[in-house]
Design a protein that fits this description.
Radius of gyration: 19 Å
Distance between the termini: 36 Å
Strand content: under 5%
Largest sheet: none
Order of helices and strands: HHHHHHHH
Low-confidence stretches: none
Helix content: 55-70%
Mean pLDDT: 86
Number of strands: 0
Structural class: mainly alpha
Length: 105
């Protein structure tokens, strides 16, 4: 997914990371697990956290506040970013709307 999002090829990623295409393919398919230094290179290359690459969190961003918010609430990064950009009064209105919705469900 990260390779597609970045618009690169597996071959170019392998070259940039100085690994063979076969090794990269093994990582992608779960046949082998990259060493710690390779995980860090991948995380830096894609601008994500090692926790994200290891499947420990769904939040790929490095911003710790957003990651904690995503992990705690179960909200997506996009939702957390939208909420963090809202005015306090709008968040309070949204909270009341959710509370109302939950009472009528």
């Amino acid at each position: 997914m990260l390779i597609d999002a970045k618009g690169i090829t597996v071959r170019s990623l392998a070259k940039d990371l100085n690994v063979s295409v076969g090794v990269l393919s093994d990582w992608q398919n779960g046949n082998k697990t990259p060493r710690g230094d390779s995980i860090m290179k991948l995380a830096e290359y894609f601008g994500v956290t090692a926790d994200y690459l290891l499947g420990l969190t769904d939040a790929s961003v490095i911003d710790i506040d957003i990651r904690i918010s995503c992990d705690t609430t179960g909200l997506s990064e996009k939702a957390v970013k939208i909420l963090s950009g809202m005015e306090k009064s709008d968040v309070e209105k949204l909270s009341k709307l959710i509370e109302f919705y939950n009472t009528i469900r």
